[in-house]
Structures are given as C-alpha cells and as structure tokens.
Specification:
The protein is of the alpha+beta class. The chain is built from 23 helices and 21 strands.
Length: about 725
C-alpha cells in the first residue's frame, strides 16, 4: 500500500491536518493522488541539497502531469482533464522559476567576477599613485644629497623632516596596497572555490549523467568565460606584485612591507593560478566510437574512437607556444595479476589549437585513436585472472601538456571517465551496463576496482537511469506506470520500491526467473526493437509497453469488446511486442486474448502498423473477422495507426490488373471438445500466414492439460 493510501485511512482529525497541508494550490491534492506511486519513488531529500537533481525532478514531475492529462483526454474525462490542464500550467510556472534561480546564480558569479576585476583595477591605480609618490620622494632625496654640501645644517634638518614625513606616508600607503592585494587574493580564492569546487564539480557530475542518457546541458562556454576572466585577473595581480618587487628594489627600509609580505602574496597568486589552470584542463568529449554515440566509454580493440580535451582558459598568446598534448592509457592502473594492458595507436600527440573550438578556446581533438592489447611476457595474450570479468575492468585515458605563460611554467594533466574495453560486439551491452552502473553511483575516476565490490543502487535512482535509456534513444521516456512494472520485475512485490536496493548482479548478471537472460539484456533488446521498428509508434505514446498481465487484465476488462493494447514480451531476449484484446461473452463474462510476440524476424518483413491493420481471427465456418477495434482506452484503430499505414500498397491493389497478394497475419479459433473461450485463454495464439492454417481439429487431446503439454513440445513449429 502506498504512503498516500495509508494517509487517507487516518482518523478524521489527522485528515483535517492533511487537508490544511494541501490548501496551497501550488501542489494540488489531486496531483498527489494520481501520481502517488511516482512521487513516492523519488529521492526528494537529496534534491533539497542537490540543485541538478532538483531540476530533473521538477521536469519529470511536469512530464508526469502531462502524461496524466493525456490519459484523461483519451478517456474523455472532461472535469479531470480541465483540472490537470490548470495544474500543468501552474506547475510549468513553478518549473520556469528554476530558470530565474539559475539565472540568479549566474548573476552572482558574474557580479563576483566584476568585483574581482574592479579590485584589480583599483590596485593598479593605487600602484600608479604609489609609484608617483615614490618617484617624488626619490627626487627630493637625491636633490637633498646633491645640495647637502651647500646647504646649512638647519636647512638639511628641515628637508630631512619633510623626507621622513614623506617616507612615513609612503610606508603607510605601501601597507594599504599590500592589504588590498591580500584582500583581493582572498576574494580570488573564494571565486575559485565557487568555480572549481561547485560549478566545475557539478558540470563533471552532469557530464557523467549525460553520458548515460540524462537530458542535461554540458556546454562549457559559460565555465570557460568564468575561468578565463578569473585567470586574467590573477595574471594581472601577479604582474602587479612583480611591479611591487621592482619598487621595493628601488627603495627599501626596515620593516618594509614589500620585503616582508609581498613574497607570500606572490606565492598565493601563483598557487591560485596553478589550481585554476590545472582544474581548467578537462575532457570535453569522453571517448566514444563513431557508430556508438549513445554508448560512450565502451571501446573496442582495433576500432577507432575519438576524445577531446579542452583548456577552459582562453589565452591567445598561448597558441604561439604550441601546447602539445600527449595521450596515454592506464598511467596509474592497478597492478593486479591478469589486469589487461593496452597500447594506444594513432596520432597520440597533438598541438592544442583554437580551430576546433566554436568559442575560440584551446582544444585537442583526437579523432582516430585505437587500442591494442599488449601480449603477456610469457607469450600469447594475457588472460584476466583477477576477480573482474573483461566488461567490469576499468581503464583510464590520460592527457598531459605544458603551459608556459608569463613566467608560469606548469605541467597539467587530466583524464577521462573510466572506460570499458571489449574485444567483440557481443560484449557491447555488458560493457554498457558497467558504464551505466559506474557513472550512476561513483564519481571518483581513480576507483578502477569499483566492480570488485560494486554497491547497490536504490530503485529511486535506478528508475531515472532506466528512463534515460529510452529518452536518449527516442523521444519518449518511461512513465510512472511503466517504471512500476520494471520495479516489480526487479524488486518483487515489495511495498516500498523507492529505497529497495538493486544489486549489480540482479541488474545485469543474474538471469530473470525462468529465462536464460538478465534484466539488462531483456531491456536493451526491447530498446533495440523500438529503435529499429517501433520508434514512431512508441514516440506517439501508442505502446503501453511495460505492464504486468494483472494490470493488463484490469485495464481491459471494463472496456468494449475489441479494445486492445500493445505491450512488450517478457520472454524474448532480443525484444518482442504483442497485443491483447478483450472479448465480452453473452453470459456476461470476459476473456483477454493475446498473440505470440512479434520479434525483429517478423517486423523486418511487415511493419507492426500493417500487422494491426490486417490482423484477423478465423471465426466460425472459417469466416475471418477483425478483432482489433479500439486502441486503449478508446481510440479507433485506424485513427490511432492510420498515419503509419502504407498507401503505396493500396494504390497497387486498386490500379494493378493482376490480383495482388498481401502478407497478413491471422489466428484461428480452435475447434475442439473444449469451449473456444477456454482454449484461447489457455495459451497465446500463434501468428501464421493464411496460406498455412493450423488444423486445430486434428490435434488429439482430451483435456486442457493435454493441450498445454502438446504446446510445450513445440509441435506446432
């Protein structure tokens, strides 16, 4: 029972409190009612402190409201449709407010950069004024020395008092300038904390999620502007501090702040610049094979892949120094026995340039790299004798370059997210499962032994990732009902799916009950089937897809005869789709009919829309009838699928002088001692061509059990 259902069963006094809680129309009670399951499977506590996750939850909530609105529209529930339209508009307003929040955060950073830039300019002006004071003092001091022999003792004493007063003022101003530089560097440190520890760290986490399908923005242009502005300020501070050193050489004295404090300030400036520039060297595009853009970080030996490094500091003069980037793999890899070693083939050294960046920044785009496994010292390829299988073994590609700029000489490095290296196409989906699991649960690129003891994932987190697999490859994500079916498949009938832990083995290694394949391979088979054969129908929301047989029965039993729905098979490894429809009998009972799943072997020859268009069942006296009339909940079949029908075939039938043949699919009602209703419920009817009807009346049987045993022997194949 959901938390919401439990709440509704409380005593009246508590229900009154619940009513008060939902008086605010920003989140109506009806939304809580209809979206109870989805709401209770999300991690709202983490969203409180995680801005990125909160944004995703807001967008997903809006999608859920849209889905519910569409259901009411299909069911012609005008009142609820009207209400949810209003809720949708209100919630859209709430979602839009997240953008002003993001804008405010950007404005805050921009304001801090402006303050930093103004501070540098103020220090520069103070320095010019100080230099003028020092020049004036120096001039008067030299003049006094020149005239000392011709001036009276009293005149000399008076001039010395003037010079001492000037020196005191100069010393005071030097201390003020030092204090201003000190404060400026503190502000720069705070700025870097925000850029590196918050903004860049959040971008890296967004990039991880985007790699596994999350619809997140990973553009670096804004960060590049901020990093560049901060770097320019710090380089200017470094130059000004060098100017202070020159002034200190010209004039110094006991307890001169330029001697006692300036060196530490210069060290701080260099340390901040070093931190900023090393942090600014990032991997913009993670390793990816050209034909597997939706599955980055899985690399196949001897297959080309690309990867792109970028420096988020635009310093035009740097380009003349030819910053050469060198790429390598497993620079700090585990040394466990059996851990595979690889060489990188192709152009492994490349100069950074501005031509490969739309923003004009410095990039090194490696487009034609390959991996080749090293042979073991004993001879032959080394076998992986660690506890990790090939697709659980993680490797890291690193980049190294040198920056020489304004007396700053730095060796800087960055690395990719961990990659999985496979040797043949059959390992691709298992490798992709490892990439998904790692990037869902870990953000430490040094944790290459992650799969030696992989953590479990709560369903609330995994459900989002599963939905991303569909939204990244199609135009539709998984809704709450579809995810509920998947949750039941992984978690069983537990009441609290949100916190239910899914193990790595349960997700991708263990076979599903009564099957010879894992949950992950089953889901990927369905996704591949959608991409190749069902994408338009899926994108339009005509496939419910994931639902249990119990829910299927509940959805159809109150609908008119001929109402049908489309769902994915649970028994096909490479993906299968079936349809079920309801028939109401004269005695008041109902029956749910289903067909054997259509796989890629069927859909390669005939589109699903044509199957639905011409599907027939052989009724009494061999008279075919069309059993599919309304797509659930009540959309006429031709209205739902008409736009997918092939018009060319109809034209051929009308205009060709020859009689044309058409590939159609039918199911034949049985003619046995058993009532047809019982027999059709006993099994899933097979799809066959009309030219080869199954002779059910020739099958010897006495009982329903005989029929089931007969079907299990594959005698009909």
């Amino acid at each position: 029972m959901s938390q919401w259902e439990t709440l509704k069963q409380l005593d009246t006094k508590y229900l009154e409190q619940l009513d008060i809680l939902y008086q605010n129309e920003n989140f109506p009670m009806a939304v809580r009612e209809y979206l109870a399951h989805w709401i209770e499977t999300q991690d709202w506590e983490e969203a409180i402190t995680n801005y990125s996750l909160a944004t995703i939850h807001y967008q997903n909530l809006l999608d859920q409201i849209n889905n519910q609105y569409s259901r009411f529209m299909q069911e012609k529930n005008f009142v609820c449709q009207h209400n949810f339209k209003k809720y949708r508009q209100n919630m859209q307003t709430v979602v839009d407010t997240t953008q002003p929040v993001d804008f405010e955060r950007q404005q805050d950073i921009e304001q801090k950069i402006t303050v930093l830039r103004n501070g540098v300019q103020a220090c520069e002006q103070e320095l010019k004024f100080l230099e003028e004071q020092q020049d004036e003092f120096d001039f008067k001091y030299k003049t006094l020395k020149f005239q000392e022999s011709t001036s009276s003792h009293k005149q000399v004493e008076e001039e010395m008092k003037v010079l001492q007063n000037m020196l005191n003022i100069l010393d005071s101003n030097r201390k003020k300038v030092i204090d201003k530089f000190s404060e400026l560097l503190k502000e720069a440190g705070k700025m870097l904390d925000m850029l590196v520890k918050e903004e860049l760290a959040e971008w890296k986490r967004r990039q991880q999620k985007a790699c596994i399908g999350a619809p997140l923005d990973v553009c670096l242009d804004q960060l590049e502007n901020w990093f560049t502005a901060t770097a320019l300020c710090l380089f200017q501070v470094k130059r000004l501090l060098k100017k202070l050193e020159e002034l200190g050489i010209k004039l110094t004295y006991d307890k001169d702040p330029f001697k006692t404090q300036r060196p530490d300030l210069e060290k701080q400036a260099v340390a901040l610049l070093t931190w900023l520039i090393r942090s600014a060297f990032v991997v913009e595009n993670q390793p990816c094979m050209p034909l597997q853009s939706k599955m980055p970080l899985v690399l196949r030996t001897s297959s080309q892949f690309s990867v792109k490094a970028r420096l988020l500091v635009k310093l035009q003069e740097v380009g003349t120094h030819l910053m050469k980037v060198k790429v390598c793999i497993d620079k700090n890899s585990p040394n466990g026995k059996g851990y595979r070693k690889f060489n990188i083939l192709g152009t492994i050294t490349k100069a950074m340039n501005t031509m490969e960046s739309k923003s004009g920044g410095l990039c090194a785009d490696f487009r034609h790299l390959q991996l080749k496994e090293q042979k073991s010292g004993i001879g032959g390829k080394g076998s992986n004798e660690t506890s990790l299988i090939v697709t659980e073994e993680l490797h890291v590609i690193s980049f190294e370059t040198e920056l020489v700029y304004q007396e700053l000489n730095l060796v800087i490095e960055t690395c990719t997210l961990p990659v999985v290296v496979i040797s043949n196409a059959s390992q691709l989906l298992s490798g992709w499962a490892s990439v998904v699991w790692y990037n869902m649960l870990c953000n430490d690129p040094k944790n290459l032994m992650f799969f030696s003891n992989p953590p479990s994932a709560p369903w609330s987190q995994l459900s989002d990732v599963l939905s991303w697999q569909f939204s990244a490859n199609t135009k539709r994500h998984l809704d709450a009902d579809q995810l509920s079916m998947l949750a039941e498949k992984l978690c069983g009938t537990t009441q609290n799916y949100a916190d239910y832990p899914i193990t790595w083995a349960k997700f991708s290694k263990e076979n599903l009950p009564n099957q010879n394949f894992s949950f992950w391979l089953w889901l990927q088979g369905i996704l591949e089937l959608i991409k190749k054969y069902l994408e338009d129908i899926w994108n339009d929301g005509n496939i419910i897809g994931f639902l249990s047989k119990k829910r299927e029965r509940n959805l159809l039993k109150r609908k008119p005869t001929g109402t049908f729905l489309l769902r994915f098979s649970e028994s096909c490894k490479d993906g299968g789709i079936t349809f079920s429809w309801v028939e109401h009998l004269t005695n008041g009972e109902f029956k749910i009919r289903s067909v054997q799943p259509y796989t890629k072997a069927h859909l390669t020859n005939i589109p699903l829309s044509e199957i639905l268009r011409f599907y027939k069942v052989i009724a009494d006296e061999n008279v075919p009838e069309h059993p599919l009339l309304y797509l659930y909940p009540n959309i006429p079949k031709d209205e739902a699928f008409g736009k997918y029908y092939s018009e060319s075939s109809e034209a051929e039938f009308r205009n060709n002088k020859y009689l044309k043949t058409r590939l159609i699919v039918v199911s034949e009602r049985p003619s046995t001692d058993l009532p047809a209703d019982e027999l059709m419920d006993a099994c899933q009817l097979g799809d066959i061509e009309l030219s080869e009807p199954v002779k059910w009346d020739h099958i010897p049987m006495k009982t329903l059990q005989d029929l089931m045993e007969f079907l299990e022997t594959d005698s009909l194949t």
